[in-house]
Amino acid sequence: MIDRLLVANRGEIARRVFRTCRDLGITTVAVYSDADADAPHAREADLAVRLPGNPPGETYLRADLLIRAAHEAGADAVHPGYGFLSENAAFAREVLDAGLVWVGPPPAAIEAMGSKIAAKELMRAAGVPVLDALDPAQVSEADLPVLVKASAGGGGRGMRIVRSLAELPAQLEAARAEASSAFGDPTVFCEPYLEGRHIEVQVLADRHGTVWALGERECSIQRRHQKVVEEAPSPMVDAGMRARLCEAATRAARAVGYVGAGTVEFLAVPDGRFFFLEMNTRLQVEHPVTECVTGLDLVRWQIRIAEGARLPETPPGVDGHAIEVRLYAEDPAEGWRPQSGTLHRFAVPGVDAEFRVPGSYGLRLDSGVADGSVVSVHYDPLLAKVIAWAPTREEAARRLATALSRAAIHGLGTNRDLLVRVLRHPAFLAGETDTGFFDRHGLDVLAAPLADKRAESLAALAAALADAAANRAGARVLASVPSGWRNLPSQPQRKAYQAPSGRIEVAYRLGRDGLAAEGYDEIALVSSAPDRVVLDVAGVRHAFAVAAYDGLVCVDSPFGAVTLRPVPRFPEPEAKVEAGSLLAPTPGAVIRVDVAEGDRVEAGQTLLVLEAMKMQHPIAAPEAGVVRALRVTAGQQVETGAVLAVVTPQEEP
């Protein structure tokens, strides 16, 4: 029996495992980097051990430090979570050699599936349909388009779509660099690129020969080859196809002597054929949707199987439909640019359960953050997973979209509005989902804010009135009189805000006849407080929740969430940036510099590459010109807005 378990991970997956451990009466041990010292997972564990440093290579990817932490804390077992070392066979062996219980599959099974190239041949021999792997050096025009893939790891890292031979060398180099950084292995290969559906089967196997295939999940809506929306069951799969998928997944698991929880991933095409992609020898990010429809606690079964328990002969059936979305701190409209900094507030309304299946149909939240959490540049920008479980797919989508649209997420930009638009999109509701969803329906449309310009204008008015109420609440005399109140007509109060669509100026008076605001003819003030303003808009009352932070005002209402930045009445002179300057879009590390000062460059040419949150971000020349200045070197850390290089237009001879 396991008595004390260390989770060799961070964020929401560590918290997820801790929840099951508490149910089982197992003492929990967290590990944390310096950046995660105050993270929720480090605070809520029974014991926590510091991993000095911040980057994964110094902390969560250090097998020696993790095993030492387990011994120091008196742990007798290690759960790897997902990502980091979860699919590292050498780490699994080191855990076992250290006399600890490994809550995962045998190292030999991890090794067999660890190389996607070798795994394909193994699956072919087991009778599982596969796509042929291509040697990058032998890719021809006839093979295009191809997908470059990292042989080790997953999560979309080290993957590139290549549609022309001319771009292949650069994409191979970028994929190798990203794979090496994320997984410590630069090996890549190519395979035919097909647009289809990403279908996967959850498997669970014990040490006594029983293998369960727990139905399928669909994870087709992806960005950068990383899943964004997942659901179970798939709207594409009928009973016959489900049986064939489960049979193929079971064969895959038996072929490697699998034990524990794992996932076999397939690419399915419209005619019902499917091809093996890879096997993830760990728990998946999207495991909650399977838990909801089956009623299982997969982490509990991972632990029980590690303790030697037997699975019942028959797996549970499926009840209802579950949809999960991954809430990221990122800007989809700006190339999925990750965001970092302080998350002032994080609240999702109507949550029925956290890290567990709701008692009946409902809303589940698996979050790695809380109010005040700092999202670091060193790790993946996933904030939380929000899951809706309902009798039907349509009900699940509606419940999830509504909860997301009403969530209070203050301080960082997220993909929340994009997720809501996807869940409400007619094509999604019709089950027309595949890996080309964003390209087909337009990322610019899907990533547009839910709040339009009118909503921004109303939010600015609410922010101004809330600010006035806050000023009066702190006044030493006549605090009950509205700010700016005049017995006779006078000049209006004026406040300005920078909104997503531009600058908004609010001019208003509060007098005997109530609110008079320029440009808000059908608006009446019902009530105002520092944190809540109620406006009558054309005869309908609307409440605006207002939260003010340093240099930031967040307004939540049925019109959509709006982030405003107050414009000072007497702004400080801004530092001028030299014309042609290329600024860092996010904090990160410069991992490569491809040009030198004085070089002539073409529009779109990559000048250097930043790495942030485990993803690479090429910085390209906006136009043809000359590199007049290069302000960074490889290995240098930069902050948002730092000048990286200066490119000036090439002068005519």
Short description:
The protein has 653 residues and is α+β, with helices and mostly antiparallel strands.
Please tell me about this protein's structure.
The chain is of the alpha+beta class. It has a nine-stranded mixed beta sheet, with helices on both faces. An eight-stranded antiparallel beta sheet has the order 26-25-24-31-30-29-28-27, with helices on one face. A hairpin with a 2-residue loop joins strand 35 (606-612) and strand 36 (615-620). The longest helix has 21 residues, at 453-473. The protein is globular and about 85 Å long.
Keywords:
8-stranded antiparallel sheet, 653 residues, 9-stranded mixed sheet, 32% strand, 39 strands, alpha+beta, 25% helix
Estimate percent helicity: 10-25%
The number of helices is: 16
Largest sheet geometry: 9 strands, mixed
| Regions with little confidence, pLDDT below 50 for 5+ residues | none
Structural class assignment:
alpha+beta
Strand content: 25-35%
Tell me the total number of β-strands: 39
Integer-rounded radius of gyration: 27 Å
The coarse silhouette is globular
Distance between the termini: 79 Å
Q: What is the mean pLDDT? A: 93
Tell me the strand order in the biggest sheet. 13-12-9-10-11-14-22-20-19
